[in-house]
């Protein structure tokens, strides 16, 4: 398989990026949901948020690469078998997923850096605080983060259901080509 | 000359003594010579200090009749500050102060019992996190007098200990941290 996308096929780069981000989104959602309910004496009380933030910030880098890669190597065109409405809906859905991802990641960053503290990424390097002047920043960003994270996973689930529908009901190549399994 | 001074002194003290009613003071919020601080044990190893930045109130006080003093304070629970934005966010959540549902805490004194020279137990109703419970604040009179800017001030400090569970605070911070100490320092400007 090639690194780059062609007009009909996804290349390895896009495929790996797609599934990495998918795993991170569901993983971070589960981790985030679980960690805010931990008791104070849980051994995860400090490590879980550290992991959540570290993975989240690495995901931000991955997403930057992913967006850049779209310009370097554009995604293949829509399948000819799909109607215009389907194509438009898919396009809109994908845009909102991208926006939602950045909204969730940026609001998460703004919670932890609200008082100027940097975020340590796996203890390897620090991401400094850049914005600290939003009124009630931690609380406001926290609310955005919570709602946007829910919206994002719900949309991601719909996105997955749509892919399964294409695979099992329409029997087209939508899911196969994101798995690198379409012939030709 | 001497006679005149003496007369002024006698008259002065007579006037002061003649104040049968206590004077009313407003907490000096403008100059913020008032603090509602708290400390809670962290794991039993150190004290975590915090403060509430936004509160206001009034008291009436007459040094000659301390038992007739009254005090009330209203505090915005969202103004909690422990020098750590993430923790403060957690403190405002429903694990602790639930500020969305209970934005204010109030204290209203019901009785003041002098306990010694310049000290008193102030009993009153504290409403915190939607729960109203009587508490006793051990208070100490610090001083009173004219300020350099034409006003008249009186100040106190006080402390009390609250059990978190009594005020429906859900989060359990461990065996050493079941209670929080409130340490209050207020200066009032005579109205
Ligand atoms: C796709 C990425 C992400 C997802 C799906 C996600 C999801 C979540 C979820 C579901 C929660 C629990 C919300 C609640 O119930 O209050 C949460 C909490 C949190 N997240 Fe994320 N998150 C992501 C990225 C990030 C990033 C990049 C950061 C910071 C660098 C971050 C920082 C936080 C923090 C600090 C909390 C705790 C909020 C609190 O104290 O209530 N998250 N996240």
Automatic annotation (TrEMBL), chain A:
Main location class: membrane
Membrane-spanning ranges: 20-42, 54-72, 92-111, 147-168
Keyword annotations of the record: Cell membrane, Electron transport, Heme, Iron, Membrane, Metal-binding, Transmembrane, Transmembrane helix, Transport
Transmembrane as UniProt keyword: yes
Cofactor: heme b
Family under the similarity heading: Belongs to the cytochrome b561 family.
Protein name per the record: Cytochrome b
From TrEMBL, chain B:
Record carries keyword Signal: yes
Keywords per UniProt: Periplasm, Signal
A cellular-component GO term for this protein: periplasmic space
SUPFAM superfamilies, per the entry: YceI-like
Main location: periplasm
Subcellular localization, as worded in the UniProt entry: Periplasm
Keyword Signal tagged: yes
Residues of the Lipid/polyisoprenoid-binding YceI-like domain: 24-189
InterPro entries: Lipid/polyisoprenoid-bd_YceI, TTHA0802/YceI-like_sf, UPF0312/YceI
Signal peptide per UniProt: 1-22
Family the entry assigns: Belongs to the UPF0312 family. Type 1 subfamily.
HAMAP family xrefs: UPF0312
Name of protein: UPF0312 protein EA798_01385
Species assigned in the record: Pseudomonas songnenensis
